[in-house]
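INFO batch 0412 | record 1 of 1 | parsing
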Amino acid sequence: MVRAGEEYEHKGVKLLIREAAAQFDAAGHRQYMISYVLVDGTYTSPIAHLWARSDEDFRNKVEETIDYYLSIARSILLGGETKKA
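INFO prediction complete | emitting tokens
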């Protein structure tokens, strides 16, 4: 179970959980709406959200989220340099 205050790191970027709210989908499966921020060096992202089912490995969601962030980091940092070359 994912909880507020947890911290994950992947490729030098931290994902900090701000809130995790359990919900049920139409089929009755438990899933979580997770509010998080990414911390990459001195950059901290605005709060964002992702959905994760309770029966999946949350670590995979963290890695997918951070990998996507890294793929677009230069454009969202307004042309600034990231620590990843």
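INFO post-check: Strands lie at 7-10, 13-24, 30-40, 43-44, 48-53.
INFO record closed
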